[in-house]
Amino acid sequence: SRPRRGKEKQGENYYFMSINEFKGHIKNDDFLEWEEVYRDNFYGTLKSEVERLWSEGKNVIFDIDVAGGLRIKRKYPDKTLAVFVKPPSVDELKIRLKKRSTESDDKINMRIAKASVELATAPQFDKIIKNYDLDTALNEAHELVANFIGIKRK
Questions:
Q1: Contacts 24+ apart (CB under 8 A), 42-50
Q2: What is the value of pTM for the model shown?
Q3: pLDDT band with cut points at 50, 70 and 90 for residue 154
Q4: Is 99 exposed, middle or buried (0-12, 13-18, 19+ CB in 10 A)?
Q5: How far is residue 38's CA from residue 1's CA, in Å, rounded to a whole number?
Q6: Which of 78, 87, 98, 107 could form an S-S bond across to 93 if both were Cys, CB 3.0 to 4.6 Å?
Q7: Which domains can be identified in the chain, with CATH numbers?
């Protein structure tokens, strides 16, 4: 239910919806997981989208908050590899968020406060990737996912 950032497109990056639309989906039990991540900012995963992708023989990769990730892990323990991407430090995370220039200082401060709490959940995940260097972290993520779904890397 958050506003679009930058060049994000409806139906491509996310499905953007009003708070009322989102709450209607909650009432209809349409979400695999959902969370009010920040006040009046709801995020969730539509069951219909996951089922559509699975029916096409595809794997699904989620980029979601820790609560949602752990919820999915509990629902599908054998189908899920839960990976926590950890920043070098909270201070470095704040620097990275400011460099993006996509959010106000208030939003960044809210995210930093939440990140401090989320870092404590890292041990509940199957794997932790320390994101000191983006290319190294991406390679590690690719390797973990490839091994999990049984793809041989070249």
A1: 42/1, 43/1, 43/2, 43/68, 44/68, 45/72, 46/15, 49/15
A2: 0.75
A3: low
A4: exposed
A5: 10
A6: 87
A7: 1-62 (3.30.63.10), 81-154 (3.40.50.300)
* pLDDT on residue 104: 84
Size (the chain), residues: 154
CA 29 – CA 73 distance, rounded (Å): 18
| Number of Cα atoms under 13 Å in the Cβ half of residue 82 | 21
Residue 130's contacts (CB-CB under 8 Å, 6 or more residues apart) are 86, 88, 137
Q: Which helix (H) or strand (E) holds 39?
A: none
For the ranges 38-42, 81-85, 104-108, the one whose mean pLDDT is highest: 81-85
Percent of the chain at pLDDT exceeding 70: 98
